[in-house]
Amino acid sequence: MNIFLNKKILIYGLGISGLSSYKFLKNKNDIFLYDDNKLKIKTLGTKKNLISYKEILKTKFDQIIISPGIDINKCKLSKFLKKNYNKVFSDLDVFYSFYKNDFITITGTNGKSTTCQLMYDVLSSQKFDTRLVGNIGNPVLSVKNVKKKTVFVIEASSYQLEYSRIFKSKYAAILNLSPDHMERHKNLNEYIKAKFKLLKNQSKEDLAFVNKDDLLINKELKLNNFKSKVIKISTKKDNRFLKNIDNEYFLTESNKENLSFVLAISKKFYIKKNLLIETIQKFKGLKYRQQIIFRKKNLTIINDSKSTSFSSSISLLKENKKIFWLLGGIYKKGDKLELSKKYFKNIKAFIYGKDKKIFSKKLKDKIKYKNFNNLKDALKEIFVIVKKERPLNSTILFSPCAASFDNFKNFEDRGLYFNKLVKMYKNEL
Q1: DSSP 3-state assignment of 214?
Q2: pLDDT at 39
Q3: What is the mean pLDDT of the segment spanning 88-103?
C-alpha cells in the first residue's frame, strides 16, 4: 500500500524540494505547510495550506516530509521532529512510493553531478527515456510524463539520504568518501552512515557499485553485510577503453573515476559501443566543475568553483605542473589537505575569504602562500606575475576548497564572478 495516499502530511521547508512535494501530493492528501522563514511563506501564495507553529504542536500528522537543507538539531521544529522522528520522510521516499522504474542513484563526496550528467548523456544517446533528477537541481517530484520504461538518474546528497526511510534504488553507486558536511553530521561515521543508506535499503536483486580503492568505503563494507550484489570499481586499474577516448576532460584522476563508474553501470543496459564512445568524446563537463575556460600558448585557466573541500581539488593539483592556486571561503570542519610533498614545489597559493587564517595554517610549511582581502585582488596579483614572468606551462586554478556563502549566494554565483574577472584581466596578457 502507498503510505502517501489519503494522509495528513506536514511538509517542512518550502524551497524547491518542499514545493515540488506539495504540488505532487496536494490532490492526494490533506497537506499542511511550514517554513522557518516567514518572509518566504508570505510570497508563496499557499495561504490555505499554511499552519502555525502552535497548531503544529496540537496536530497529529501521519507523515512529515522534511526538506534536505533543514538540520533537525538547528531548526524551529527541532523538539517536535525528534519526538516524531519515526514519521519523518524525504521526497525520495515519496518518489519511490509512486514510481517503480529503474533508478540509478549516485552519491559520494566528489564527482556526483558530473557522473550523473555523463550517465544521463550516455543513456539518452542510446534512445532511453532518461530523466536527470535530485541534488543536481531538478527535484525528483517535479518530473512529468513518466512512462513504465523511463530510467531515472538520481544525484543523492548525504542530506537527502539522511532523512530517507524507504527509498530503494536498483542501481546504486558510491563514488568516493572523504570528510564533508561535518557541521551537519557531527562526525565522519554519521556522514558515512547517511551515504550507505543507499546500500542498506537494497535487496538481493539490486546492484551496488563502489570504489575499490577507497579506504573509507572498504572499511564500511567490512563492518556490514549488504543484501545487494556489490561490484567494486578499480579506478587505478589501466582501462583499455580510455585509450579510445580523445577528450582532455578525462585526463584527471577524478574524471577518470567518474567515467569508470558510468562504464560499469552502462554494461547493465547493453548499450552500443560506438554511440558510447561518441557521447564520451563530446562530453564537456558541467559549468564550474574542473572547467577549462581559457587556454592559450603556455597558460591554462580552470574554473572549479564547485570545489568545497581539499579532496575535490587533489586531482587537479596533481595533474598540473606550475599552478597558481586560488582558494578560500568558509572552511569545512575536519577537512585535510592530503597531498604528497612532491607536488608542493609546483604550487603557489593565493588565499582569500572569511577563513583565510585557517587555510594559511593548513598550508603552512607545505605550500608557499599569500593572503588577500578578496578574490579580485588575488587574481589580479596572479595576472601581474604571469605577465611579468611568462612562466611555461602554467595553470591558474580556481579551486576554492570551501563553501561560498561568505561572499556569494552559491558556487554558481562564485564561478560566474570568477569568469567575469578573468575576462577583465586576460586582455592585459
Answers
A1: coil
A2: 64
A3: 96
Report the chain's mean pLDDT, rounded to a whole number: 92
Cα Rg, the chain, nearest whole Å: 23
CB 303 within 8 A of CB 398: yes
User: What is the residue extent of each domain of the chain?
Assistant: 8-89, 92-282, 291-428
CATH number of 291-428: 3.90.190.20
Half-sphere exposure (Cβ direction) of 192: Cα atoms closer than 13 Å: 17
pLDDT digits (tens, 9 = 90+) for 258-308: 999 999 999 999 999 899 999 999 999 999 999 999 998 889 999 999 999
Note the helical H segments in 242-337: 253-266, 273-282, 314-319
Q: What is the mean pLDDT of residues 341-361?
A: 95
CA contacts within 13 A on the Cβ side of 368: 7
- What CATH topology corresponds to 92-282? UDP-N-acetylmuramoyl-L-alanine:D-glutamate ligase (3.40.1190)
Q: Which three cell numbers stand for residue 321?
A: 605542473
Exposed, middle or buried by CB within 10 Å (0-12, 13-18, 19+), for 56?
middle
Q: What is the pLDDT of residue 333?
A: 85
Distance CA 80, CA 424 (A): 52
Q: Which residues contact 143 (CB under 8 A, 6 or more apart)?
A: 131, 133, 152
3-state secondary structure at position 323: strand
pTM: predicted TM-score of the whole model, two decimal places: 0.91
Domain 8-89 has CATH 3.40.50.720: yes
